[in-house]
Write a sequence for this structure.
């Protein structure tokens, strides 16, 4: 059953199985006198195990939405409930802690730290956990194995291919056991074959129960998700279920 | 654990730009080394001065005759009579009888005279003294004996030679028992003093001088054979001077009484001397003066050190600002992955502390090379530029730098402090970046 969209703003915290919910969120940039509404009264909920692709033309507000969801940006108006708390009103330090605790990020350009090795890059989010997470190093090694990089633990990002770097980034996004994984065009810099390898990995994670929200331009990538949200001029244009007659149900 | 991790991370980030980091380290290194070296030299000089003053005795008061300005001399400035000035035997008696706090007092008369033995001669200092003089000045007799009471009462023509005087006058023969000549008189050599290092006093009241060419004769003999009136040659012209005593050394039993006793002596002398043809020197006061000078010198050093570390700090800040700009992307990544502003500040502060701390440690290491370096330079100058060496004042020639533990600790602590102070601005700049902007940065 697809989750029903909450249409009533200011309705208090969402039910427990909704891991993230934004309600009536607008984001307004004022540029030299005139205002740009990057997001215009957007409401959407993400349940545990959701797999959502956000699409839309360039400038439609996809990245802005993802930044709000990622607690990197605060909405101009509206609420954002993450793990049951309204984070739209929280201070910078609390937001940092929330990012480290509940969210995992995957970027288009991988964004690994150049002077750190593979395993150290995977470890980075752990160094910002308060209280520290037990069993950190073993977890990193397990995740490196999961993404198929056990033999590259000591390598630097510059010694890896794009696909391999994105695998490291995925492992890094998982290390803190996040509630939601946010990916902004995770395959944008990769060729088709590698893109599908990365998507296979994300599919597997979703099947294992991870909630994933990703931005993409490509239809075949978006169709890997269960829902596709289309944005236009900062508004939600449509929310569509992905029909999977061709695919066997379950996983 | 966390601490070591931060340290390691700091090192690795800095190793990305080895040359740049090395230059920043160098800036601090030079500052720290300079502090340690300067303090060591300063301590060396002041230690030397203190030793010399202590040699004079912290409980002693030295009263010396001083030639007053020409017109105001005591005599009626009869050219034939010459001038007459300085301490009198009466002064000595008065001091001994009137100042109860004085334990011992020793009179002394000295003139520079040629001393001969056959063809050998030296321009020595003839010290006419009493037997107590040797003990009071810690003069050790290497062979033979010192001047005795019997020498005094019998006006004996005996002499004790200082080490170098003995060697120069008697290069071959054993000097003991042989006679040397001072003026027209012959004196039998009864003893040789042990070798002694040069002493100097601060404040210009006492000259640094070589004790090793002194010859000692009984004070009574001096008065009988040479007398109070002597010809002296100053700047080519001869002059007749009448001086009874050159110096009176008084020793006070209790160190606390030194200042008061000196005041009494001053008052006593003032009453009987119309002009000030004497000087009262108190080694304890010199010691205190030396202490104040050392404190002032240290303040000056700290100023210099402060400036050089400031320059080092600016270097570090410059490099950290460049680093922060270059690593904008990394900052954005870390912020997205959960780092608070405080944690970013910490990370960059650690890097500056690693930079300045490395500079500080290396600086301390180079600081320890101060002694060997000074010795090396000394050796080099003595070997290759002997004239320059000879022209150097003795306290420079004998300078032994003394590493002051406080300076090492202070220099290192200050260097780390400089790292923190100059690291805060770049680190805050890093932390205050907008994570979204930082992530977009290329
Ligand atoms: N920091 C900003 N200041 C001003 N305007 C901004 C800022 N960030 C985004 N915008 C504007 O908000 C709108 C939405 O931008 P956003 O980056 O979300 O688009 P997008 O859907 O991610 O586009 P693309 O597919 O090209 O990445 C755009 O019109 C953009 O110009
Ligand atoms: Mg975008």
């Amino acid at each position: 059953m697809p989750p029903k969209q909450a249409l009533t703003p200011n309705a208090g915290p969402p039910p427990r199985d909704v891991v993230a919910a934004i309600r009536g969120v607008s984001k307004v940039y004022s540029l030299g006198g005139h205002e740009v509404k990057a997001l215009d009264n957007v409401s959407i909920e993400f349940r545990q195990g959701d797999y959502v692709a956000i699409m839309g033309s360039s400038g439609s507000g996809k990245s802005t939405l993802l930044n709000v969801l990622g607690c990197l940006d605060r909405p101009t108006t509206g609420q954002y409930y993450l793990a049951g708390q309204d984070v739209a009103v929280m201070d910078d330090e609390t937001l940092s802690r929330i990012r480290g605790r509940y969210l995992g990020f995957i970027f288009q350009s991988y964004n690994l730290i150049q002077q750190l090795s593979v395993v150290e890059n995977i470890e980075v989010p752990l160094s910002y956990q308060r209280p520290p997470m037990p069993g950190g190093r073993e977890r990193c090694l397990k995740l490196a194995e999961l993404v198929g990089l056990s033999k590259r633990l000591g390598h630097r990002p510059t010694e890896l291919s794009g696909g391999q770097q994105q695998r490291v980034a995925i492992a890094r996004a998982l290390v803190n056991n996040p509630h939601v994984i946010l990916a902004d065009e995770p395959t944008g810099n990769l060729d088709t074959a590698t893109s599908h390898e990365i998507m296979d990995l994300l599919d597997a994670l979703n099947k294992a129960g991870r909630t994933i929200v990703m931005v993409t331009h490509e239809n075949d990538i978006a169709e890997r998700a269960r829902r596709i949200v289309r944005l236009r001029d900062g508004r939600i244009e449509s929310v569509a279920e992905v029909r999977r007659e061709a695919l066997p149900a379950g996983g | 654990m966390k601490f070591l991790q931060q340290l390691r991370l700091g090192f690795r980030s800095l190793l990305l730009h080895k040359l740049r980091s090395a230059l920043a380290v160098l800036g601090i290194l030079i500052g720290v080394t300079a502090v340690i070296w300067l303090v060591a030299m300063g301590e060396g000089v002041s230690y030397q001065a203190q030793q010399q003053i202590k040699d004079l005795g912290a409980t002693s008061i030295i009263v010396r005759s001083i030639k007053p300005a020409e017109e105001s001399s005591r005599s009626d400035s009869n050219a034939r009579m010459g001038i007459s000035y300085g301490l009198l035997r009466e002064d000595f008696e008065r001091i001994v009888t009137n100042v109860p706090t004085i334990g011992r007092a020793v009179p002394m008369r000295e003139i520079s005279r040629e001393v001969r033995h056959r063809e050998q001669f030296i321009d020595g200092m003839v010290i006419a003294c009493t037997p107590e003089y040797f003990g009071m000045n810690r003069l050790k007799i290497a062979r033979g004996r010192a001047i005795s009471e019997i020498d005094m009462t019998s006006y004996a023509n005996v002499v004790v030679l200082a080490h170098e005087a003995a060697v120069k006058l008697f290069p071959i023969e054993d000097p003991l028992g042989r006679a040397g000549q001072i003026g027209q008189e012959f004196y039998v050599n009864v003893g040789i003093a042990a070798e002694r290092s040069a002493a100097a006093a601060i404040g210009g009241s006492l000259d640094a001088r070589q004790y090793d060419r002194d010859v000692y004769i009984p004070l009574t003999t001096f008065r009988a054979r040479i007398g109070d009136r002597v010809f002296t040659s100053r700047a080519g012209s001869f002059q007749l001077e009448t001086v009874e005593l050159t110096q009176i050394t008084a020793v006070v039993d209790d160190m606390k009484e030194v200042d008061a006793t000196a005041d009494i002596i001053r008052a006593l002398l003032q009453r009987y001397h119309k002009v000030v043809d004497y000087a009262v020197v108190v080694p304890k006061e010199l010691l205190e003066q030396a202490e104040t000078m050392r404190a002032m010198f240290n303040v000056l050093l700290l100023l210099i050190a402060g400036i050089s570390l400031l320059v080092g700090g600016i270097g570090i800040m410059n490099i950290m600002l460049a680093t922060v700009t270059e690593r904008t992307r990394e900052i954005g990544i870390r912020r997205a992955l959960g780092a608070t502003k405080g944690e970013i500040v910490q990370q960059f502060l650690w890097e500056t502390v690693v930079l300045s701390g490395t500079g500080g440690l290396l600086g301390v290491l180079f600081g320890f090379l101060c002694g060997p370096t000074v010795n090396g330079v000394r050796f080099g100058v003595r070997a290759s530029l002997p004239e320059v060496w000879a022209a150097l004042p003795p306290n420079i020639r004998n300078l032994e730098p003394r590493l002051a533990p406080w300076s090492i600790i202070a220099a290192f602590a200050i260097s780390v402090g400089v790292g923190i102070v100059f690291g805060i601005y770049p680190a805050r700049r890093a932390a205050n970046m907008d994570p979204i902007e930082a992530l977009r940065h290329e």
Observations:
- Confidence is low (pLDDT under 50) at residues 1-9 of chain A.
- Residues A 62-63 surround magnesium ion (ligand 2) (CB under 6 Å).
- The beta strands of chain A are 18-31, 34-47, 51-56, 77-82, 85-86, 103-106, 180-184, 211-215, 227-232, 235-241.
- The first strand of chain A starts at residue 18 and ends at 31.
